[in-house]
Amino acid sequence: MQEHLTVYDVCVIGGGINGVGIAADAAGRGLSVFLCEKDDLASHTSSASSKLIHGGLRYLEHKEFRLVREALLEREILLVKAPHIIRPLRFIMPHQPHLRPAWLIRTGLFFYDHLGKRERLAGSSHVKFQAENSPLKNEIMQGFEYSDCAVDDSRLVILNALQAKEKGAKIITRSYCRAVTQENGIWRVEIENAKGCYTIQAKVLVNATGAWVTQFLKNTAQVASEYAIRMIQGSHIIVPKMYPEDKAFIMQNDDQRIVFAIPYLNKFTLIGTTDREYQADPNHVEITQHEIDYLLDVCNDHFKKQLTQADILYTFSGVRALCNDDSDQASTVTRDYTLTLNHDVDQAPLLSVFGGKITTYRKLAESALEKIQPFFKDVGKKWTEKAVLPGAENLHSVDALVEQILVRIKAVQLETAVRWAHAYGTRIWKILENISHVQALGQDFGYGLYAQEVDYLVEHEWAISSEDILKRRTKLYLEFDTEQVQILDAYLLALHERRLQKDVA
């Protein structure tokens, strides 16, 4: 396969949230864009987050006011851009006087309420806990409550990739960038995948490889990195639902860190995250026993329900590649992003992304476009702030959409309708086109996953494996047993073979 005659304006390496955000922004401004990801979209750090769109209350202690303000402003913007995958969530912070005095927390929450525009979320308040009704230990009698948002992190990546594709970008997964060279001020990018190797050309190269950012610069582009990174491992555990309230808890610890307990998929509680230096292969990040003990201990210090390791249903870990600011502790390394541009005379530009967080991905993309815009004569203006993501078009209410699905699709389960509405928004009608009964959805794999949806995910959302579908597209991975996964794998293999035969024909 050869595309060497095609010269793209921008080639993005990396299919995490920053990469797809930059690709979508660039494509929407009229630039031709090629993005390649060595694995599945969002298969690393971008799907290993705490699933939050938040300002970062604890960053105020580190005086990162610019980052917090930007994140708070973005929180409001993203809530409008993707209301099907982002929802308001109230957070309760139990007060531990020996850790932080009440006046300090009140001051922090005042800034949190007023640093950024807050139109859709309720402000903070002081709360008192009734021992008989509170899931917290009886000695915890008061605390504070404030607002942030929960997000389906991997679907946020998928939706940005879809938007990029619909704006004309070419998105390629399972394709490794093996080498980049320059020729006459143009990047030659060698891509390798299961089908073989091919080359594309690009005027600007964007290194959005996350944990591999310095490795890409040194080994692939053979360019000296202006910054070093610190890889910080963050791990989470998932346990059965710990309390009935649909609120999250933010728990303070003696080491000055915080741990979240977050309602997850209606049936579970997500607990995390940790902060530890990581120096091994970022392709294979696993939770350590020390992290498990740490998270369990913090929870057990706060909640009446005492957890043991036997309660853990699932764990996941990711590596945050943060720009090294010489902080003494992993938890205090800045979460802000840094963009560097390598561009000497007669050299093709190379933009690299260091750090960043999911909440500020859109603003990061705008900053990236500001840096590469001078290399093009005609580039469109900023556009992403007001543009909704796929599925949010004409979406007046997720609850109303659920009702429409229940009316239109006979015999569909409420739980399935809710999942569809939140995952796809109004794009669910592309999946359910000409469908009026669940029997017409094809093979039933369990828990509301039918062949019709699987086919759509393979055809339109770059899904290939059962993990792509269950973990990053539908969040059904906590429901399926081994046998059900094998059945889905067999279906996907047969589907893949049929598609190959069709391509050959």
UniProtKB/TrEMBL annotation:
Residues 384-489 form the Alpha-glycerophosphate oxidase C-terminal domain. It catalyses: a quinone + sn-glycerol 3-phosphate = dihydroxyacetone phosphate + a quinol. Its cofactor is FAD. Its EC number is 1.1.5.3. It is an enzyme of class 1 (oxidoreductase). Residues 9-361 form the FAD dependent oxidoreductase domain. PANTHER family: GLYCEROL-3-PHOSPHATE DEHYDROGENASE (PTHR11985), GLYCEROL-3-PHOSPHATE DEHYDROGENASE, MITOCHONDRIAL (PTHR11985:SF15). Belongs to the FAD-dependent glycerol-3-phosphate dehydrogenase family. This is Glycerol-3-phosphate dehydrogenase. It comes from Acinetobacter defluvii.
